[in-house]
Amino acid sequence: MKENHAATSDTNLDHSDGSMSGAWQERYDAGKTGWDRGEPSPALLHWLNQDTLSSCRILVPGCGRGHEVVELASRGFEVTAIDIAMTPVRELTHRLTKSDLVAEVLRKDVLGFSSSEPFDAIYEQTSLCALEPGNWAAYETRLHRCLKPGGRIFALLMQSNRHDAPPFHCELRQIKQLFSDTRWSWSDDAFNVDHPSGMTEIATILTKRES
Q: Which SUPFAM superfamilies match (predicted)?
């Protein structure tokens, strides 16, 4: 019988994160998951099919139900996926197990996550816009630490025009200041992706500058 390597961890979730975890869990319980398109993002598929993103060790923060995680795992990526809510962690682990796919799935707060080995790439889709803007600088620092020099973030920046609740608007000029050119190199070939919610995402690639 083939061993299944899909894994979950419910430990190391700080008690201080309980209210945040509970808030997102309540959204899943109530079926209020409008960010979930039900399939992998067309931007990710574009990057994969164009070989812009190829098999490597990749982090998916705020993975949700993990449609992209399943796609990446099916293509041979070494995937670590994290989410703060229990429901998506359980559902994703079950889906990986059922499909006989390998990925590490952890229930953790993205702001407290660390890894002893840096990643080659990060897929950032709905994590930044889910965080209070006051936490964005800490999140940028966390991603920078998790990524190898020369590693890349494949990012989708939500254009929601919302400033009081998630998904928060990720205004491009503001995000470029946050991910400054002293630490990151921005791709010139950004493109727009329509979201089923009626919003738009800006798909772009950031490369961590060599030290």
A: S-adenosyl-L-methionine-dependent methyltransferases (SSF53335)
